[in-house]
Write a structure and sequence with these properties.
Mean pLDDT is about 75; it is low at about 85-90 and about 140-155. The protein contains four helices and nine strands; from the N terminus they run H-E-E-H-E-E-E-H-E-E-E-H-E. The protein has helices spanning about 5-25, 65-70, 120-125, 180-185, and strands spanning about 50-55, 60, 75-80, 105-110, 110-115, 125-130, 165-170, 175-180, 190-195. It has a domain at about 35-90: Wheat Germ Agglutinin (Isolectin 2), domain 1 (2-Layer Sandwich). A hairpin with a 2-residue loop joins strand 4 (about 105-110) and strand 5. It is α+β, with helices and mostly antiparallel strands. The relative contact order is 0.07. This is Kazal-like domain-containing protein.
Length: about 200
């Protein structure tokens, strides 16, 4: 066999081998077009701010957005999932926010909520209505948090941060210093001044 024919036969053998590999490629179906690999574990807070999440055709209510996302669900609405439709909500638009703590009060209809910053409020579908934590005004010291009386948190059951931003608060004739406004409000005290109480 001539050297030309030997090289030609070698090239043909390589082409046949490559063609065989291409023809024998395997495609793996991972259970449909909606498959997403399960995300890595992440730590979520125990905050109860329910959201409706969806993955594939499955809708499920989660205690908060972090829990939904950590289970591979996309948040489609605030509140519990409803049969026959999702909650009325402007969904998280995917914008990235910084982690700066510059609290703002946000409003969405009658709902009021404190957010770490304005970006977080807007991303959650709330309009910023003021700087700082939302203040609850109760002229008769009654509940104005919506819902019925049975929805009202009992004294001491409200979850507050451990942030130290002291306030002087009063209930009746009792005046005392609390670590922050949330703690004072949770105990049913009315804030009378920022900072520690003096002379009491």
């Amino acid at each position: 066999m001539s050297p030309f024919l030997t090289r030609l036969a070698g090239r043909i053998a390589i082409l046949i081998a490559a063609g065989t590999l291409v023809a024998c490629s395997v495609e793996v179906d991972e259970g449909g077009g909606d498959y997403r690999p399960r995300p890595r574990p992440q730590a979520c807070t125990m905050e109860y701010n329910p959201v409706c999440g969806v993955r594939g055709g499955n809708e499920q209510t989660f205690p908060n957005a972090c829990e939904a996302r950590s289970n591979g669900f996309r948040v489609v609405g605030r509140g519990e999932c409803r049969r026959g439709g999702r909650p009325d909500f402007r969904p998280d638009d995917g914008r990235a926010c910084t982690r700066e703590y510059n609290p703002v009060c946000g409003a969405n209809g009658r709902d009021r909520q404190t957010f770490a910053n304005a970006c977080e409020a807007r991303r959650s579908g709330f309009d910023v209505i003021g700087r700082g934590e939302c203040q609850v005004r109760r002229p008769d010291n009654g509940w104005d948090g919506g819902g019925s009386d049975r929805d009202r948190p009992r004294r001491g059951e409200r979850a507050c941060t451990m942030e130290y931003n002291p306030v002087c608060a009063q209930r009746g004739r009792d005046r005392r210093t609390f670590g922050n406004a949330c703690s004072a409000d949770a105990e049913g005290y009315r804030i009378v001044s920022p900072g520690e109480c003096s002379g009491y």
